[in-house]
Amino acid sequence: MVPLLGAFLASVLGWYRAKLAYTVTLASVGFSLAASVTVLVDVLRNGDVQYRLGGWAPPIGIEVAIDPLSAFVAVVVTAVALIVLVPSRQLMANELPAGGGGPYASVVLLLMAGLTGIIITGDLFNLFVFLEIASLAAYALVAVGGGKATVSGFRYLILGTIGGSFYLLGVGLIYFMTGTLNMADAARLLPEVQNTTTIVAAVVLITTGLGLKMALFPLHQWLPDAYAYAPSAVSALIAPIVTKVYAYALIRMYLSVFPPSYITDVLPISTVLVILGMTGIVFGSVMAFAQQDIRRMLAYSSISQLAFIALGIGLANSLALIGAVLHIMNHAVMKACLFLAVGSIRRQAGTASIPQLAGLGRRMPLTMGAFTVGALSMIGVPPSSGFFSKWYLIQGGIDASNWAAVAVILISSLLTAVYFFKVLEKIYFGIPEHSQNEAVNEAPAILVIPTWVFAIAMVALGVVNAFVVSGILDKAIGPNWGI
Amino acid sequence: MPYTSWIPFAAVAVPFLVTVPIVLSSRRPNLRETWTIAAAFATVGLVVSMLPGVLDGNIPELKLFQISPAIPFTLRADPLGLFFALISSSLWLLTSFYSIGYMRGHHEHKQTRYYASFAITMAAAVGLAFSANLLTFLIFFEIMTFATYPLVIHRETPEAIAGGRKYLAYTMVGGLALLGATAWTYSLVGTLDFRPGGILTLDIPAAQHWGLFLLFCLGVGVKAGVMPFHSWLPTAMVAPTPVSALLHAVAVVKAGVFGFLRVIGFVFGTSVLLDSGAWQVLAILASITIVVGSLLALGQDHLKRRLAYSTISHLSYIVLGAALLGTTAWMGAVLHLAAHAIMKITLFFCAGAINVKTHRTLVSEMDGVGRQMPITMGAFALASIGMAGLPPIIGFTSKWHLALGVTEAGYPIFMAFLLISGLLNMAYLFPIVYRAFMIRSPHFTRFDEASWFMVIPLALTGIFSLVLGIVPNVPLQLFRLAATIAASVTGGGG
Q: Residue A380: pLDDT above 50?
């Protein structure tokens, strides 16, 4: 447990050492990953871990609570971040004027501290604090890009703050009714007051707030610009993990704070999530098809994929929830791969416009190969990991007898194929205008290797998904989710 | 009795792994083609080595790992799987030789991508054959869809890319329907194992039963070219001829048909389908496809497109046989799987050879070509006779059993479809033979065959279709195997 906190200390250290910033960042995220893996193993063997900050007992003091679910998400987030950070210096140096990298490294550490904090905390207000740390860091990272990125960072800031405030209001209402901020404690006390308007309002506020943060359709407006104009090293970091952590926070609320029956019976939250999820999947895919900039296309694709996770939560049975959590992992890996590939393309070819990608398949075979693997996994071609999250989601849909959801999940594969094949055809069979890409070369190994690590991970995670599911996710979800 | 063996796995792994040396030796074409042929020989060897055991009832299987909790990734060489693997791997071997002649004769580009995709597709075909449950099957089914795409768009012309899009759109819809059906089946019965006689039981509500069956029909029906899901197949003829020959006559479309056999015989089970009557829908669709496919073939002047429509029609013979649920009909269906494969690959090989040598693609340009290429057109003639279902070619044996099966099932109406289509087969194939041999043309006067790489494979398949027609148990015991399959599925004596 303690090592995780050590990672936060390292982050503060990193702040003061601008020169060694990248090294310190890598080292502390690496340390954080090692800690998360240790904790995951520990939690799986010995059960949940609690740690009282400052030694105060839970209802008063702040508690860190780790169960298999949070340990799993922590491993995913730190692992993906670590691999993305490896080539980030090369990417930043390429897109920003000299000296722009210093703040990047330390802000990344802040972001990571915030995200891990959200994952492991057992306290509602503490979660808000980490939420704000992570969000502020993310706004700053987006705005580093300058120009349009500053504007989109600002927009992200405004909408993100609104989301944060909603969440805080909800937490305030819970505190008002139960007198506690500890999650376990609140979960114990909430059933007594569950039918009061105040708590109903709290649930709605928290859901909306976190929905905004995770870019749940129709609260997604901040996302496309933020991803598209941020530096590649930033979008490759933010796109895979940040929204996923908020999705995790939402799952955590439903699993550990609110009484389960509440989500389905008292309020139609699960129905709302299912409908928004279904609409979001279709909307994101259609919008993705309409984009001319590959980063915007990936951004809309993220909206669609996050809607999958929301749908999985909303279907409210363990299979669907396993699908949702698995998709958190799979989508993190896929998006990291795709955004890194786009980063390489921008570095080598200086463009992110889809029509100008023509012929790059020949010039950058390795990068494009990884991009293709990523695309196929997004579509859900077995045995890639993308297939299996859909497999569980579909089973969940069937279990819930929600045939419309099953149909949407199936059709979404087709829609995803449509917009990815639009790009792939261009890359491999497009004829370049005025030989613009003739001189483009393959990206350097420091970019290609991390991209391929993700590409291989996608297939590997697909093949071993049964271990992940029965070894970790069943323990994380099975007992808590008995609707 | 099932016993654990690595052979089925090796038969899948060899063609899959050979893509690595193929890609690595892309600058040395001779070495690259050697790899392909070595892998093809190895695969055939592995598959054939299991034959004697399987005939004695010893079924090799290998549980590799869990794909999903409670669903293992299992490869099992049961008689039907082995039958399909035998056909696809041995024809892959011949096609590998043929490809060399064709691709070099045409100076095609990107041959490395071609051979690599080809090998993956074959790995998927063998994997599909040996899949012991629906989820494993689905995985190979989808790998096959995407591995074939680079072969369809090989020429990279706008026409080829459009064809590729259409191919993907159709087959992906099929794959997704199959995925839905698989998940549905799992939630109904909690297992996905292929078992002779089926895993679904009679207590499933009728609406679910029908819905599931139709979803399965869509899932495997797209690849099998059953109308109205057939139109990708003629479009996909833009691919190089060896691709059309093996994939669009054997591996891909037969994967769809094979899927029908698995779904009908091993998921639903014949007694359940007989009880619900859902088979009638499929039998009627298949009958319509048989006749309409033949009619459309008659109207094509482009030789490969004519053969494509003929494929559509013949695939539905197999589907019809399986849908009739009787032992003899099943026997005919399984035999026709082999018969059509070997006859149609011969026809495609011939079309490709003519194309490489004379650059002609239209039936109306074939006048007198038999004078220049007598071996090619001889093989074409043999296969044509078989396609029409006349003895002594293998096509007669399979159609004879199909016809008996129709009578046995007690629906003589289907016999009419078979007869009409048989006549149409003659009408769209025999004139080509007639033109080639009987009409003289100043362009073709002296003997000048295509490369031996092409002529020998096509002569071999032509001869085999004759040999199998006379002694169907030589050389691979196909007849015995078919009888075993039919008996196990329908629970009756051969």
A: yes
Closest CA to A316 of A141, A147, A126, A482: A482
Q: Are A72 and A40 in contact (CB under 8 A)?
A: yes
What is the C-alpha to C-alpha distance for residues B176 and B227, in angstroms, rounded to an integer? 18
**Count of domains observed in chain A:** 1
Q: What is the pLDDT of residues A38-70, one digit of tens each?
A: 888 887 777 777 766 666 665 666 777 788 888
> In whole angstroms, what is the distance from residue A221 CA to residue A242 CA?
16
Of residues A395, A410, A429, nearest to B187 (C-beta): A395
**Count of A-B CB contacts under 8 Å:** 71
Q: What digits encode the pLDDT tens for the residues A1-11?
A: 444 555 555 55
Residues B282-290 have a mean pLDDT of 86
Question: What is the interface pTM, i.e. ipTM, of the complex?
Answer: 0.81
Please write the tens of the pLDDT for every residue from B138-154.
888 888 888 888 888 88
Instruction: Please tell me if residue B204 touches chain A, with a CB cutoff of 8 Å.
Output: no
Supply angle C-alpha B339, B344, B346, rounded to 5: 105
Residue B39 belongs to some domain of the structure: no
3-class DSSP assignment, residue B477: coil
In which domain, by residue range, is B492 found?
278-494
Question: How far apart are the C-alpha atoms of A332 and A325, rounded to whole Å?
Answer: 11
Task: Please check whether residue B218 touches A, CB under 8 A.
Answer: no
The residue segments making up the domain with residue A399 are: 2-480
**Is B109 part of any domain?**
no
Of A207-216, A432-441, B6-15, the one with minimum mean pLDDT is A432-441
List helix spans (H) across A53-196: 68-85, 88-95, 101-120, 124-143, 148-178, 183-193
Flag whether B447 is in a domain. yes
The beta-carbon neighbor of B68 closest among A388, A411, A425 is A388
The C-alpha R_g of chain A, in whole angstroms, comes to: 21
